[in-house]
Amino acid sequence: MSMQRLRTALALFGAFSLATLLAAAVMVHLAFGTVQADAPGHYWSAAKVLLRTGDPAEATVWKARVGGGLSFAQVETAIRRLTRDMTLHEAATLPLGDDVAAMQGTPWRKLHIYLYCSPLTAARMIEYSDAFAAHLPCRIALLEDAQGALWLYAPNLDLLFEGGRRLPDGVRSAASELRDLVRDLMERAAAGAL
Predict the structure, then answer these.
(1) pLDDT for the residue numbered 9
(2) What confidence score (pLDDT) does residue 28 get?
(3) Residue 27 pLDDT greater than 70, yes or no
């Protein structure tokens, strides 16, 4: 099977999977009224990205292009300063690009993954559903693409927080605050806010 056929097959499978999830969410909502009103819209947005790109990973993330003229180090400094001002605690930084270069013995693109956590928000989410543990901690990736442009990536938290039944009020408010912090951090870091 050629690579193009494989990509097409995977894109079709992904589109079918997202369409099935969307249909299931709508049916559950209609049958039980438990799915949040915004859920189908979030799944539809993801499905449109999947159909346009053929890439399921692209369909489930937020991304922001870093402003021209900013260096990797400047954006990294912005991320660290911004998180210090927010209620996010730095859990770790993974310099994956450096690790790949060291293992290959040749230069590779810059890629750092920053892991952050809001412990009290994490506790609320896990008290609601143990499965939230798999999504901890929050992560933001700073990546140099193949053309040398810098991008910030983070998981699309709208799908996680609003893609099913309504979260209890305390969990919902904490999740909304966390989602807003991550989006704000990405936008400000992409602009080099120092």
Answers:
(1) 73
(2) 59
(3) no
Query: Domain boundaries in the chain?
Result: 1-56, 60-194
The secondary element (H helix, E strand) that includes residue 112 is strand 111-117
Q: From edge to edge, which strands make up the β-sheet containing 111-117?
A: 61-65, 150-155, 138-144, 111-117, 89-94
| Residue 94: other Cβ atoms inside 10 A | 14
Cβ-Cβ contacts under 8 Å for 126 (sequence gap 6 or more):
132, 133, 136
Neighbours of 128 (CB within 10 A): 16
User: Which residue is listed with tokens 């056929």?
Assistant: 5
CA distance 179 to 38: 15
Longest dimension (CA), the chain: 57
Amino acid at 55: D
- Average the pLDDT over 168-185 and give the result: 90
Residue 84 has which token pair?
Answer: 């210090």
pLDDT tens-digit profile of 56-112? 999 999 999 999 899 999 999 989 888 888 878 888 999 999 999 999 999 999 999
| pTM of the predicted structure, to 2 decimals | 0.80
Structure token pair of residue 176 = 């909304």
Residues 6+ apart with CB under 8 A from 134: none
Q: What dotted CATH number matches 60-194?
A: 3.30.310.70
Residue 46 CB: number of other CB atoms within 10 A? 23
Cβ count within 10 A of residue 26: 14
